[in-house]
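Dear support,

We are seeing what looks like truncated structure output for some complexes. This example has two components. We would appreciate it if you could run it in full and send us the complete token output so we can diff it against ours.
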Amino acid sequence: NAGVTQTPKFRVLKTGQSMTLLCAQDMNHEYMYWYRQDPGMGLRLIHYSVGEGTTAKGEVPDGYNVSRLKKQNFLLGLESAAPSQTSVYFCASSSYSPLHFGNGTRLTVT
Amino acid sequence: KQEVTQIPAALSVPEGENLVLNCSFTDSAIYNLQWFRQDPGKGLTSLLLIQSSQREQTSGRLNASLDKSSGRSTLYIAASQPGDSATYLCAVVQGTDKLIFGTGTRLQVFP
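Here is the complete output from our reference environment:
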């Protein structure tokens, strides 16, 4: 089983550029999440989804948008990247607990 | 607002030692508490999940306890090994299965 797959693994953007991070899960999970991890701040929830076609804001949603058009995919978009969005992004999925995480996307915005 | 704190932030021990990692949370209204392991450059792997009605969970050399009333959980690792070296994170679940994470304890076990 692939579990939770994130693409890309690494990306460097210039300020103002846009990009989309893709998360795919093959476990038929209802819930999907996007977190960012920054040194000294732990993981913070950006957006989450409780089912296909639904999305909701987490703790730090500003500057990000998400879509869940298919149950197995959860996309995270940055419309105009800023240096403050330099981070490691993790996707996770679950049908209730526990969560299953992808290996992360390391994003640098210069 | 729920806050989750982990102490110590880093720990270095010789192989074979028994050790305890601490996690505290400010709001006792939780559904469950989870402990995760994170290896460098990797995602998080779930180790143990304790439901709010439970006091402890065990898996191999790992034992996690939960005291909701005092807002504390501990992760006990018996007979530590170099392969246990990683960052350990605790997280509490509130609301719609949203996890609130602590900042982690970075553990190094040296031979």
